[in-house]
Amino acid sequence: MLHEIKKVEHIGGYKLKLYFRNGKIKIFDMEDRLRTAKNMFLPLKDVDFFSKVKCEDGTIVWPNGVDLCPEMLFKCSKDIPKERRKRSSSPASKRKSKNRSKKLFFK
Fold it and tell me: How far is residue 91's CA from residue 97's CA, in Å, rounded to a whole number?
C-alpha cells in the first residue's frame, strides 16, 4: 500500500482524524458520502456505530467489515496545517485548557 494508515481517531460526527505512516495527519469527513449509503454502509449512518472505527492492516475498518481504500482516504481528506498541529499539542495550550476547565468547574 502506498499510503498506510497507522492510527485513526473519531473526532465527532462523521469526521475521522487519520495518521498516515508517511507522517501526514489528515481529516476525512464522510457525511456527504453517507447520505446515499446502501447495503453494508447503512450502519455507518449511526454515529455511535461510526465511532467504532479501528485501524487494521494499514487502513480503517468498522465492526461490520466495511473498510476503505487508504489511497482514496489520503486523496479525499484534508491536510491539517503543521502550525495547527504544533499549537494543539504544545504544553502551553494544554495548561490553558486545564486552567479553563478548573475555572468552569469551580464557579
Answer: 10
